[in-house]
């Protein structure tokens, strides 16, 4: 159930019986041959598939984030970290003011992790509420499913190559891993030269059945957070 499929009276009726919602966070940045919007596509789809059977509404994905390392790649849209955090703070505050008390953030971009600390600061002002920050690939069951596919899952390689993020099926040989520490310590133009096509290395594609099983596990783990992981707030 997406916000776009509801009006305010629908939402009022929902809030009379439940106080949960989901906020997906993404990013618009280069992902080699994959979509520029991989992180937004994955986080929103994960949120919707996890929440829909429970009838829990999902906010529109916040697609823009800080990704300065990839700023030299055409199509990347990077906002200041302060801008991103201000947006997240305003969105969470609006949701809490509107009557939501339990908010699950489904995160699709590693650069969004400062929002986890921000959420904790917001909760200090809203002691009767709870916010869970969940980077979908870090859940223990999902991480185990990823390890079964391989140890080299990373940015813009097989880990993010899904039917809904893939733009073409061109076969590419595996790429040698890049030095992420050097890339992070370099200005955008130098980082672009180091990355070449944009992938951090490894295989570009994993068996489809393995990827779909990993996705199934990730959705189930995210749904379990919505159902069973809220602390008791008095």
Brief rundown of the structure:
By secondary structure, the protein is mainly alpha-helical. It contains 8 helices and 3 strands.
Overall description:
The protein starts with 7 loop residues before the first helix and ends in a 6-residue tail after the last helix. It is globular. α3 runs parallel beside α4 (114-125) and α5 (140-149) packs antiparallel against α8 (208-228). The model has no long low-confidence stretch (mean pLDDT 96). Helices cover 41% and strands 8% of the residues. It has a three-stranded parallel β-sheet, with helices on both faces. The protein has one domain: 3-Layer(aba) Sandwich (Rossmann fold), CATH 3.40.50. It is mainly alpha-helical and 234 residues long.
What is the topology?
Layout lengths: L7 H8 L4 E6 L12 H14 L29 H17 L4 E6 L6 H12 L4 E6 L4 H10 L30 H5 L3 H8 L12 H21 L6
Parallel strand pairs: 1-2, 2-3
Helix pairs in contact: 2-8, 3-4, 5-8
Keywords: Hydrolase, Metal-binding, Zinc
InterPro entries: Creatininase-like_sf, Creatininase/forma_Hydrolase
Family: Belongs to the creatininase superfamily.
How far is it from the N-terminal to the C-terminal residue, by CA?
28 Å
Using the CA coordinates, give the radius of gyration: 18 Å
The CATH superfamily is: Creatininase
- What characterizes the major β-sheet? 3 strands, parallel
Low-confidence stretches: none
The backbone outline, from C-alpha atoms, is globular
CATH architecture call: 3-Layer(aba) Sandwich
Strand tally, please? 3
| CATH topology-level name | Rossmann fold
Number of domains: 1
> What is the string of helix and strand elements?
HEHHEHEHHHH
Q: For the record, what CATH class applies?
A: Alpha Beta
> Which whole number gives the mean pLDDT?
96
Q: Portion of residues in helices?
A: 40-55%
Count of DSSP-assigned helices: 8
Strand content: 5-15%
Overall SS class:
mainly alpha
Strands of the biggest beta sheet: in what spatial order? 1-2-3
InterPro entries: Creatininase-like_sf, Creatininase/forma_Hydrolase
Cofactor: Zn(2+)
Pfam families: Creatininase
Keywords: Hydrolase, Metal-binding, Zinc
């Amino acid at each position: 159930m997406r916000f776009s499929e509801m009006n305010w009276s629908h939402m009022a009726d929902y809030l009379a019986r439940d106080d949960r919602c989901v906020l997906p966070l993404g990013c618009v940045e280069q992902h080699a041959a994959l979509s520029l919007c991989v992180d937004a596509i994955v986080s929103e789809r994960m949120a919707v598939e996890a929440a829909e059977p429970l009838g829990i509404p999902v906010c529109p994905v916040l697609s823009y984030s800080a990704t300065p390392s990839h700023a030299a790649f055409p199509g990347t849209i990077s906002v200041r970290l302060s801008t991103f955090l201000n947006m997240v703070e305003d969105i969470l505050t609006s949701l809490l003011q509107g009557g939501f008390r339990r908010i699950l953030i489904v995160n699709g971009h590693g650069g969004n992790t400062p929002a986890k600390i921000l959420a904790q600061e917001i909760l200090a002002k809203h002691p009767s509420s709870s916010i869970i920050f969940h980077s979908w690939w870090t859940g223990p069951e999902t991480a185990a499913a990823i390890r079964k596919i391989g140890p080299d899952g990373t940015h813009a390689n097989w880990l993010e190559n899904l039917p809904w993020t893939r733009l073409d099926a061109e076969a590419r040989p595996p790429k040698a891993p890049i030095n992420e520490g050097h890339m992070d310590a370099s200005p955008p133009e130098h980082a672009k030269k180091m990355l070449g096509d944009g992938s951090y290395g490894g295989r570009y594609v994993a068996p489809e059945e393995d990827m779909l099983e990993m996705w199934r596990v990730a959705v189930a783990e995210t749904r379990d957070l919505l159902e069973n992981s809220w602390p008791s707030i008095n």
